[in-house]
């Protein structure tokens, strides 16, 4: 039987399993409504199930091979963690057990089912940024948040996106600006900001036809 974890740790493990890549705390908060911090994070690190690194103002996390193995064992248990009184959690474990049985019949592992999104070709990043901006701004071509833009870029690396944003800004095709109401900024806004001209910029507007 798998070593049972608490509800929050179990939720974090399965979320990292499905996303199958490094995930920041702001993104975790967006996806599942909580972050992986404090003793909960340290226990998963100590067990060797999750690696965590400080990225900017927050931590980012990723499953280790041992973490993937734990998820496979936990799915095979088919019963929720002790003290679970939620019908939703009970139903989830029925679903996970069904997925586990299917993978075993097919001779597959979890990493065949859950894989990271493909990173787009480098020369495609500018086009994808412009398309994401159009989707967010619509016909108004108003300012949009960098945090919202980054969510639409999938597997594009932070380094490549920032390089393209700075290039477009330098060519006058894109305008960056800080959020004037600092109290309105979320952790995701801070994480997504790009530093240009000595300022952390949270908003952008693109000159597109």
Please explain how this structure is put together.
This protein has helices spanning 7-19, 25-32, 38-47, 65-77, 87-106, 110-113, 125-137, 146-151, 158-170, 187-192; strands spanning 23-24, 50-55, 58-63, 144-145, 174-177, 194-196, 199-201, 203-206. By secondary structure, it is of the alpha+beta class. The protein has two domains: 7-113, Winged helix-like DNA-binding domain superfamily/Winged helix DNA-binding domain (Arc Repressor Mutant, subunit A, Orthogonal Bundle); 122-206, Arc Repressor Mutant, subunit A (Orthogonal Bundle). A three-stranded antiparallel sheet has the order 1-3-2. The chain has a three-stranded antiparallel sheet with strand order 4-8-5. The chain has a two-stranded antiparallel ribbon with strand order 6-7. A hairpin with a 2-residue loop joins strand 6 (194-196) and strand 7 (199-201). It is elongated and about 55 Å long. The termini are far apart. The model has no long low-confidence stretch (mean pLDDT 86).
Largest sheet: 3 strands, antiparallel
How far the N terminus sits from the C terminus, by CA atoms, comes to 59 Å
- Mass-distribution shape: elongated
In the CATH scheme, the class of the largest domain would be: Mainly Alpha
Describe the strand arrangement of the main beta sheet, using strand numbers.
1-3-2
How many individual domains?
2
Cα-based radius of gyration, to the nearest Å = 20 Å
Strand percentage: 5-15%
Please tell me the CATH architecture of the largest domain by its name: Orthogonal Bundle
Please provide the ordered H/E string of secondary-structure elements: HEHHEEHHHHEHHEHEEE
The amount of helix comes to: 40-55%
Low-confidence stretches: none
CATH topology of the largest domain: Arc Repressor Mutant, subunit A
Please state the structural category: alpha+beta
> What is the residue-averaged pLDDT?
86
